[in-house]
Amino acid sequence: MENDLSRDDLLILVDGLDREVGTATKLEAHIGKGRLHRAFSVVLVRDGAGGPEMLLSRRCEGKYHSGGLWANTCCSHPRTGEEVVDAAYRRVKEELGCEAEGLREVCAFVYRAEFDNGVTEHEYDHVIVGGFAGQLDLDPSEVSEVRWIGFDDLAKELAEDPEKFTAWAPMVLTQAMQEFQE
After folding, report:
1. By CB distance 3.0 to 4.6 Å, which of 1, 17, 18, 24 could disulfide with 28?
2. Is residue 123 annotated as part of the catalytic site, yes or no?
3. Model confidence, pTM
């Protein structure tokens, strides 16, 4: 199994209402039937010349699933005792080397995705949005590249080329776009 799946991070197992029911290693939570656990997906937005733009990240090829696919800015799991928004600030800095500003949760949803390698994602995913600050310094073990994209172009890509995106990206990105258009 890839290094990032065997890390010793403990994930927070939850029920369908996001109430903690225990912990599991990353490997235990993702192998086999996939245990429901708390996660978050961050979307950073900036003002572009044609309106708001989102920062998308392409997962590195070596990830334990969805390698090479486009996703929202950053995804991860909070540590035991760590608030979701605090974890989001931490992971943006670790994965992208930049700062996030004004992070806030806009919604949460549960999804399940099974992959050919026996990994199952079953997450209670908190969608976090905010602004971008600083310079990018990507962690190549997490992110192979990034790009900024306007909402109209993103909506078109999600509709025309969904196979280029992770299983959770359409839900996360759609929720984030709705938040910024209200």
Report:
1. 24
2. yes
3. 0.92
Instruction: Answer for the pair 47, 54: CB distance below 8 angstroms, yes or no.
Output: no
The residue among 130, 126, 132, 129 whose CA lies nearest residue 146 is 132
Quick one: pLDDT band at residue 3, thresholds 50, 70, 90?
A: very low
- Cβ atoms of 39 and 123 closer than 8 Å: yes
Token pair recorded at residue 139: 């962690």
With contact defined as beta carbons under 8 Å apart, do 5 and 115 qualify?
no
DSSP β-ladder status, 70-71 and 74-76: unpaired
- Respond yes or no: is residue 75 known to be catalytic: yes
- What are the pLDDT digits (tens) for 76-103? 999 999 999 999 999 999 999 999 999 9
Q: From the candidates 75, 95, 98, 121, which is the catalytic residue? A: 75
Give the tokens for residue 101. 């500003």
Measured CA to CA, the distance from residue 33 to residue 55 in angstroms comes to 32
On whether the CB atoms of residues 55 and 135 are closer than 8 A, the answer is no
